[in-house]
Specification:
The protein has 16 helices and 19 strands. It has 461 residues and is an alpha+beta fold.
């Protein structure tokens, strides 16, 4: 039986930049780029998290060897610090200083926000941050303009107790809410007899429970009160989907105001181990490609990359990345927009797609209003991660910018997407030929994986 709570209520090789007190060691940057080029492949390592005065970790020996190799490839030793790069660096730093470090007060539109959250083994972050952040956000939005819907899915820790404490605090503030605590664990889900949907025969010869359909059901359950409220004439303008992340109310207001509020979806940028972004499964650039690198400026597509460098709303095909705002209307349409996995018959070809990507493929507003990642909204899965990407001063140092620009170029010049994407396309084509009804609108979401639910999480097969 599910338990629910309802209620209302920064010598010659050093160049000094006018916009920063940090100096850029061009030789060190060059050495790092040389090693990157030498090791270039479809799995190039990400750029190091280099802060002011930090070592690049490149030895003299490897530097000499890599410089010789790079010279054979036609790259000049001082290329990263040529005038054009310094101009671009100056412009990016100026943009950051004008935009990113300014605390922005957001006059609130009169919008009603439905906040949806799914929790599993999240007691620590709930007690350390998340519950307080949700309570503060609810107070700032106002009890009449917010509804909190939480679905907890059989946690092994005391997430249920943490959510009961959150419920009590929201009740004190008269915040309307629905908190559902499910006693059904992963182990019990797996032990159940295989159903008609959400199961796949794995290479191990067993019919096993797929992870994504399971997560989709949990997310859809967090949306159930939205429909019940609509029957009572209570409607909302936006849905705010929250992961177990560290955020502030101002982050939410910034996200809601992405592209002046005109979007099919607006996402934050999430970090667990900065500078590497976290949600690689759902993020796709404006052309539907995966990110070319796990660090700034992330993208292969020129339009997505340009926006990221200029701290503008980044056009993407899909994103999730910790925190997402979407108009509520498609979720109340007939038929309503819902989270889903790819069909079981397609998953049998050793393929998978994130429900948080497929939702954008299915959303009719995606092509009309666009999906955006907001580089001004950076959340973390720990307090340390949040602080690292939201410092008092610029979150990107001059050295980080130069390295990012050049590593991004090298990856775009030396890696290609067609081989990986052709493999996926061929598998989907083989599946499509099996039946005229076999169609998948979210092909850009599909990856070469099979993900199965496990009693303590999930695993690849």
């Amino acid at each position: 039986m599910h338990q629910s709570f309802h209620g209302n209520g920064t010598d010659d090789s050093l160049l000094e930049l006018s916009e920063s007190s940090e100096r850029v060691d061009c030789a060190s940057v060059d050495n790092v780029l040389s090693v990157t080029l030498d090791n270039s492949s479809d799995k190039l390592p990400g750029q190091p998290w280099v802060q002011s005065g930090a070592s690049t970790g490149t030895s003299t020996g490897s530097s000499t060897s890599s410089t010789q190799t790079r010279a054979k490839g036609g790259f000049e030793a001082d290329a990263p610090c040529d005038p054009w790069n310094l101009i671009e660096l100056h412009l990016i730093l100026r943009r950051i200083s004008e935009t990113d470090i300014i605390y922005r007060e957001h006059p609130r539109r009169h919008e009603r926000i439905y906040i949806a959250m799914v929790n599993w083994n999240n007691e620590f972050i709930l007690r350390s941050h998340l519950s307080k952040a949700i309570t503060e956000l609810s107070w700032k939005l106002g009890p009449d303009n917010v509804y909190i819907s939480v679905y907890e899915s059989g946690s092994y820790d005391n997430t249920k107790g943490a959510l009961m404490d959150l419920d009590a605090e929201l009740d004190r503030l008269h915040v309307p809410r629905n908190i559902t605590l499910s006693p059904i664990t992963h182990e019990q889900e797996i032990a159940a007899a295989p159903g008609n949907e959400g199961w796949v025969v794995t290479p191990r010869g067993k019919k096993e429970l797929r992870r994504i359909p399971y997560l989709s059901r949990a997310r859809n359950r967090s949306l159930e009160p939205l429909h019940e409220l609509a029957k009572q004439g209570i409607y909302f303008d936006k849905i705010l989907f929250l992961n177990d992340v560290v955020f502030t109310s101002n982050d939410v207001f910034e996200l809601l105001d992405t592209n002046d509020g005109d979007y099919a979806a607006a996402c934050s940028l999430d970090f667990s181990k900065p500078p590497y972004y976290y949600d690689t499964f759902a993020l796709r650039d404006a052309h539907g490609h995966e990110a070319v690198m796990p660090t700034w400026p992330f993208f292969r597509d020129s339009s997505s990359r340009y926006a990221m460098k200029n701290l503008l709303p980044v056009p993407v095909t899909s994103c999730w990345n910790g925190m997402v705002a979407m108009p509520a209307a498609p979720f109340l349409a007939n038929p309503p927009l819902r989270f889903r996995g790819i069909p079981d018959s397609l998953a049998a070809f050793h393929l998978e797609g994130s429900e948080c990507c497929l939702i954008h493929a299915d959303n009719p507003l995606s092509t009309q209003h666009g999906v955006y990642l907001n580089p001004l909204v950076r959340v973390g899965y720990t307090t340390a991660a949040y602080v690292a990407v939201n410092p008092i001063l610029n979150w990107l140092s001059p050295r980080t910018i130069l390295q990012g620009l050049w590593i991004n170029r090298l990856r775009r010049w030396t890696t290609f997407t067609w081989l990986k994407e052709r493999l996926l396309h061929n598998r989907i084509a083989d599946w499509s030929h099996l039946s005229p009804e076999n169609k998948e609108p979210g092909q850009f979401c599909v990856i070469n994986e099979m993900q199965i639910l496990d009693p303590r999480g999930w695993y690849h097969v």
